[in-house]
Write a structure and sequence with these properties.
alpha+beta, 7-stranded mixed β-sheet, about 25% helix, globular
Length: about 750
């Protein structure tokens, strides 16, 4: 492989970039006169008809970050499908201050070189390709700087490799450092990517976070983490974004992304929060109450697995920690009057007690939970409840709402309930709400899964929080609590923070003054307090992932409110009554549909927005469709596979969503994975496809999709609009193929992007 190497130290980046404009630019409109193929690894390759484009077979990205400097190496495998030699150049959108350090090609290229184009030359290059090949896709990179390579040949029906390395200084915001690898946002792109990132720092790394792609992280050491984007996640479209926080003393590492939006009176924020250091020398002890369903339906393999799960938890407790076993069917029985400390004697007694459990009778959930919550707490411990059931309440008080209210009101020790539903015959909304309101979690064991494995996986994480009962409040400049600066924050109730945990919080902010938070929580018997202040001056439309993730959490919360409103109250329901006659439910329906349309967030209740034939200009009809789905599923469905799938969607793709979901993936009523390419989320906008037309989601609620005028692709007015939107970080909204109907500065326009 021939290699041309340029060594560029970070301190020289600015000087190098400043010197570039003096180099001889490529004359306007001459790129395709000199070479037939232009390869953009972030998107695709271009060739004027009738030539067959060069194929991008694979892109491998290897990123090395040392402190605030990133070195990105891309190896691009290119295949020439034709029977003749083809010549190509490679264009790579990169951050503005990037500098080329290496370029290599494994063919007979003559003195292969690569250089960063000045901003004006990069813009002319974009314009030229758009005019020549009339493909709007490249417009999403308009405004970005470009690295351009020299001409290189690719032999007939052969595969060649191009390797390019660039370096740049990363932006920092307090304890946070950001990295971005530009790639196409177009759903359905098929170029396979492999992305590996090594992060090395002088201070310990508190957390790594990618809002764009799910990552797997290996902690090599406290100051060296390696992450990989697996193949499935790497196939997701969009730029790869990474943020990492480093530790600075005893205060938890924290940072804030902000997106400005005048229509909400300020904007949206995403707060990253690392776990604080443990100051106590002893890890807090646990008190675990195992609430175990031994009703007749547990007979067989489920009973054997459940007994093994109980045994596993008791054995895993440390000496000096406490436990109790409450087993229930028609009646409620207890291993002990109150939790006992684990000793060799109590452990032996528990083994015999567990072995003697036999399935019989009904399911008295209300009284079993009541007994668990009313126990005296073992002093100096964190009280936890592992609650397991395989069925609906059939004995005693069976009304869902009454059980739910009892847990909320009758939990003086603030016991955390971790609920496990075994099989499909469980009330999913009830278990979800019980867990959520007590800072616990819910999990479901499907047929064929092992109860012991599911319970053990959750229990292993509960090794004593570094911050229990955490409360995050917003304060003013004087430190007084204020309710006016932040609205619609998610999660509203923070879970306990365990060692190694990190939190992602989203909300809306009002006004542009610095945003201040106070976090308090318990570590053992002492109360800890931390203060954070964030300047909103760096709020940017580049952070378009923030409002979309916020809207995802918001929609999930609204859907869950509808779901919980369908709870059995113990009173007979009136046949044929419409629950959406209640103004509160109607308001929830309206907001769910509005947010789904504006942000392009599809759920099982609004999937019809992506269905060809649905009239997007009939807002009243769309509301009826949304109401029907919410009524039949969220409000009415409590048990079975359709209830499990809703709970799973609300958790994985809703309340716990921290990564963008561009294909709007969700699980249907049979737990089959559903995705769509009929909705496109680009920059901070969402578009719905109808035939060859893409409709701006913000237009749907107005019911008027008629543009006032049409702008032709490639016209002077079109290029002027491209440059305007590029200055707002929104040029990508013009990159869809077909006709785009969107609102710009209050005016509805049609952009004719026909090829």
């Amino acid at each position: 492989m021939r290699r041309t190497t340029h060594t560029v130290w970070p301190a020289a980046f600015a000087a190098l970039s400043a010197a570039l404009p003096s180099q001889s630019p490529v004359p306007r409109h001459e790129l395709f006169d000199r070479v037939h193929h232009v390869v953009v690894p972030s998107y695709r390759s271009f060739a004027p008809a009738p030539r067959q484009p060069i194929e991008i077979e694979r892109v491998q990205a290897r990123v090395e970050i040392l402190e605030q400097t990133a070195r990105t190496t891309l190896q691009v495998e290119l295949r020439n499908p034709s029977s003749m030699q083809e010549e190509a150049v490679l264009l790579l959108p990169v951050p503005s201050e990037a500098a080329v350090s290496q370029f290599a090609f494994d063919g007979p290229a003559k003195e292969p070189t690569a250089r960063l184009l000045p901003a004006d030359e990069a813009r002319r290059t974009y314009d030229e390709i758009v005019r020549k090949v009339r493909d709007p896709g490249l417009l999403e990179f308009a405004g970005a700087r470009l690295i351009r390579t020299s001409v290189f040949p690719i032999a007939p029906r052969a595969t060649s490799k191009v390797q390019l390395t660039y370096e740049h200084v990363l932006e920092a915001d307090g304890d946070r450092v950001d990295y971005e690898l530009l790639r196409s946002e177009a759903v359905g792109q098929t170029v396979p990517w492999e992305i590996v990132v090594d992060v090395r720092t002088k201070a310990p790394i508190s957390m790594l976070y990618s809002p764009s792609h799910a990552v797997n992280t290996d902690k090599i050491s406290a100051r060296h983490h390696r992450l990989r984007v697996d193949r499935a996640a790497a196939a997701a479209p969009g730029a790869f974004r990474l943020a990492y926080l480093v530790e600075r003393g005893a205060t938890p590492a924290a940072s804030l992304f902000a997106y400005p939006d005048p229509k909400v009176g300020g904007g949206y924020f995403l707060m990253l929060l690392g776990a604080p250091h443990r100051t106590a020398t002893v890890t807090p002890r646990r008190e675990v109450t195992l609430v175990f369903d031994r009703s007749g339906s547990m007979a067989g393999e489920k009973m054997d697995q459940a007994r093994a799960a109980l045994q596993q938890v008791v054995e895993a407790l440390d000496d000096g920690e406490a436990f109790n076993i409450i087993d229930y069917s028609t009646t409620v029985e207890r291993f002990a009057e109150r939790p006992v400390v684990k000793t060799p004697e109590t452990l032996a007694q528990a083994r015999r007690y567990i072995a003697a459990l036999r399935p019989i009778g009904g399911t008295n959930i209300h009284d079993a939970l009541l007994e668990a919550l009313r126990q005296e707490v073992t002093p100096g411990t964190l009280p936890l409840v592992l609650f397991l059931t395989d069925g609906l309440p059939t004995v005693g008080c069976t009304a869902e709402q009454t059980i739910r209210d009892m847990v909320a009101a009758g939990n003086p020790a603030q016991r955390r309930i971790f609920a496990f539903g075994v099989g499909q015959d469980v009330n999913v909304p009830l278990l979800d709400r019980i867990a959520e309101t007590t800072r616990g979690t819910s999990a479901y064991v499907l047929p064929g899964e092992d109860v012991e494995v599911k319970v053990g996986r959750v229990f292993r994480k509960l090794c004593g929080p570094v911050l229990a009962n955490p409360e995050l409040t917003t304060v003013d400049a004087q430190g007084a609590v204020t309710t006016r600066r932040v609205r619609e924050r998610y999660p509203q109730l923070m879970p306990d923070v365990f060692d190694g945990d990190s939190a992602v919080l989203l909300g809306q902010y009002r006004e542009d003054e610095p945003l201040r938070f106070v976090l308090v929580g318990d570590e053992g018997e002492s109360r800890r307090r931390f203060s954070f202040e964030f300047d909103l001056a760096k709020a940017s439309t580049k952070n378009s992932f923030v409002p979309r993730l916020w809207a995802t959490r918001r929609v999930a919360d609204l859907i869950d409110q509808v779901r919980q409103a369908g709870a059995d109250t113990g009173r007979p329901r009136v046949a044929g009554a419409d629950p959406f006659a209640d103004p509160k439910l109607k308001e929830l329906r309206d907001e769910i549909l509005r947010l789904s349309a504006e942000f392009g967030i599809l759920t099982e209740y609004t999937s019809f927005l992506a269905t060809e034939g649905t009239q997007l200009d009939d807002w009243a009809g769309l509301l009826i469709g949304c109401q029907t789905e919410l009524h039949n599923r969220a409000w009415s469905t409590r048990t079975g596979l359709p209830a499990l799938n809703q709970g799973l969607n609300l958790k994985v793709f809703g309340k716990e969503q921290t990564v963008l979901n561009p294909s709007n993936c969700y699980f249907d009523g049979n737990l089959a994975r559903v995705e769509t390419t009929a909705v496109q989320q680009i920059c901070d906008r969402a578009f719905f496809r109808r035939g060859n037309q893409w409709i701006d989601g913000r237009l749907l609620s107005a019911g008027n999709l008629q543009p006032v005028r049409t702008i032709q692709f490639g016209s002077p007015e079109h290029l002027q609009l491209v440059h305007k939107l590029a200055s707002e970080n929104r040029a990508g909204t013009l990159s869809l193929t077909g006709e785009i109907v969107l609102r710009i500065d209050g005016e509805v326009l049609a952009i004719n992007n026909q090829k």
